[in-house]
Amino acid sequence: MPKIVDHDQYRKELLCKCFDLFAQKGYGSITMRQIAQGMGVSTGTLYHYFSSKEALFEQLVEEISQQDVSAALAELEGTETLQEAMAALGRYLVKNEDYFIKWTFVWVDFCQHQDSKKMLNQSSVFKRANQRYQQAACKFLGVQDKVLASFILSFVNGLILEKLWGDETIDFVEQCTLLGKMLTVYLQQNVTSSVN
Amino acid sequence: MPKIVDHDQYRKELLCKCFDLFAQKGYGSITMRQIAQGMGVSTGTLYHYFSSKEALFEQLVEEISQQDVSAALAELEGTETLQEAMAALGRYLVKNEDYFIKWTFVWVDFCQHQDSKKMLNQSSVFKRANQRYQQAACKFLGVQDKVLASFILSFVNGLILEKLWGDETIDFVEQCTLLGKMLTVYLQQNVTSSVN
Amino acid sequence: MPKIVDHDQYRKELLCKCFDLFAQKGYGSITMRQIAQGMGVSTGTLYHYFSSKEALFEQLVEEISQQDVSAALAELEGTETLQEAMAALGRYLVKNEDYFIKWTFVWVDFCQHQDSKKMLNQSSVFKRANQRYQQAACKFLGVQDKVLASFILSFVNGLILEKLWGDETIDFVEQCTLLGKMLTVYLQQNVTSSVN
Amino acid sequence: MPKIVDHDQYRKELLCKCFDLFAQKGYGSITMRQIAQGMGVSTGTLYHYFSSKEALFEQLVEEISQQDVSAALAELEGTETLQEAMAALGRYLVKNEDYFIKWTFVWVDFCQHQDSKKMLNQSSVFKRANQRYQQAACKFLGVQDKVLASFILSFVNGLILEKLWGDETIDFVEQCTLLGKMLTVYLQQNVTSSVN
DNA sequence: AATGAATGAGCGTTCATTCAT
DNA sequence: TATGAATGAACGCTCATTCAT
């Protein structure tokens, strides 16, 4: 069945090309014509692969939420101490800053539009993605505590959001290093006190 | 003897009523008719007070960015230790969760649309708001370090973002308390080590 | 009854101020707000004196069609020969070029809008004006022949129209003088031939 | 394999269908919906072929100003004397009275709207058309004198304007015949006097 | 599979007009 | 009398979507 493979693969290629456009303009402000043009196809072709603008957007979100977290984390592996891990995370954020900002735009946009609907498959798509992130974070940082994982994820989200808001004074590496120090001290203390 | 209306005050009243609507649908997806209806006025009246949808949105952002941070922080005052302060912050976030989520939606939306323009007065409106937040945070927590202030703000932003994404497992009080502990330990340690 | 006099006189003043505005933009393109602003009054006041935009326009046309032709022709009197009369007419056209062009704009506009209606009082307003012009022309030029009067009026209309179209090469005096010569020769010839 | 349509040709067909509508209502008073309906297409299709109402109007004026004058004059050829020529012109005017009146409405309308702009290409479109008319008139009547050509054109314009104003007593043939006589006499006289 | 012409509901905005003051 | 705030139908125009090719 080579045809189906082609069709599906081409669909995914188109989805990837969509990402920037949706991130820049937002779901409500971008038009199907602009999307088609940005992809170098006609509107007819666009509708050949996606049944509606909404479907296109949902598939895009699905796609980016499925981009394998573990693959990304592979880049971060090989750190021995928490401090090193956090420094590596900081560098990783700097390197992919643009991508994470776009990702945040798309994700927030998606949430906004979910509200006004029946949250069709929000929970599934969404929460699965979030869980994967949490698990990856736990694994990477060698942390088991779910609250602590949430804590770290929130902090990273917040850093990106701050950058998205145009605060150029934020330094990802500096901030992550700071978190690293705090975590180290905190975990030591915790161990000590729990021993006591 | 014209009809007596305090033009400017009524304008601000309308702005306040806009907030929820823009937060729920987003700039690109809400229509002027919906806004007018939501405010209980006609589209004509809407345009009597705002020259365009864009102007309305910008004035809304200006308005909400001017809502006095200090007034909000008054509610948080009276804490003695950092731990108490963070716990109070947690409770405050819980209490105003909806507002902060909406605020985030509007702000992100605004950033997205600023990109495609000359950022007219973005810096002024925007950065002033951010600075006010940082200063308030410093004052409230008794922290001078700007990096640390950014750290805390990022964390709070991230918490809200996490909730905005639908993660209902996050507990603001728990998370803030955790941050309180970490900060306490970290600052103690820092003092100790700098003394040593 | 001083009040009624005031009211009516003010109404006519307003009408006069309208003329330029209607001439420049045309009935369909000018707005009541623009008219009110151009007159230095509010829209409310405008509607206090005129029941509708249409009524305003009709009264304007009525007004300018009633501006006394004879008064204008007084300026032209005192010529002895047809040649002199035509030269005087030429100078008169040059002097009032702007007014006649505006007059033509308004008049054509009015005709265009009459078509789509029941020609309410078009005939009366309109044809009376035209008849007055013809009579004045006959008297001024000492011509009895109605066909000849139409001929001359048409020519004058055409001159103005040509100017309205932007043909700046047209010289009213030159053209009127030419018509003077032609009429002189023609009438002589005619007399001669009818005598013969 | 897209739907096969000769875009440019269809555009011109649509333009031709516009003429009557613009002539009857005027640029400012006709709506795009009315135009679309009058053409038997949707507003969307209208905008597929014309970028704006203004562009549509300008292209219409361009189109009708390019309609070849010489083709029209072909119908008038074959006259031997000036008298015959003028009589033929009169009959031609009678025959095309409606068209010329509409043409005048559109042209005057166009002039009115040009005033408020930078007269983009008015001069070119406009003056070229006028020149063509003058040349055609000269050729047709065997007249070289530019002043005389302007004289005749003005007269013809004036005749049409008189009809446009609703003067139904005007007889094109009668008037043109009169002009023919006057020209004949005048030119004879001129020759005589210049010989003398 | 791919195109782009076609649609008409709906968008942001403006309009003539009304009415409380 | 005079104002300008208020209205909502209608404007020019755009949109997601369909369909003939």
Secondary-structure map with pairings?
Four copies of one chain form a homotetramer.
Chain A: H1 2-25, H2 32-39, H3 43-49, H4 53-66, H5 69-74, H6 82-95, H7 97-115, H8 122-141, H9 146-164, H10 172-195
Helix pairs in contact in A: 1-2, 1-4, 1-7, 4-7, 6-10, 7-9, 8-9
Chain D binds a DNA duplex (21 and 21 nucleotides) through α3.
How would you describe this protein?
The structure is a homotetramer of 196-residue chains. The first copy, chain A, is an all-alpha fold. Chain A has a single domain, classed as Orthogonal Bundle (Tetracycline Repressor, domain 2). Chain A contains ten helices and no strands. In chain A, helix 1 (2-25) packs across helix 7, helix 4 crosses helix 7 (97-115) and helix 8 crosses helix 9 (146-164). The longest helix of chain A has 24 residues, at 2-25. Chain A is elongated. The mean pLDDT of chain A is 87. Chains C and D meet through helix 7, helix 8, helix 9 and helix 10 of C and helix 7, helix 8, helix 9 and helix 10 of D. The structure holds a DNA duplex (21 and 21 nucleotides).
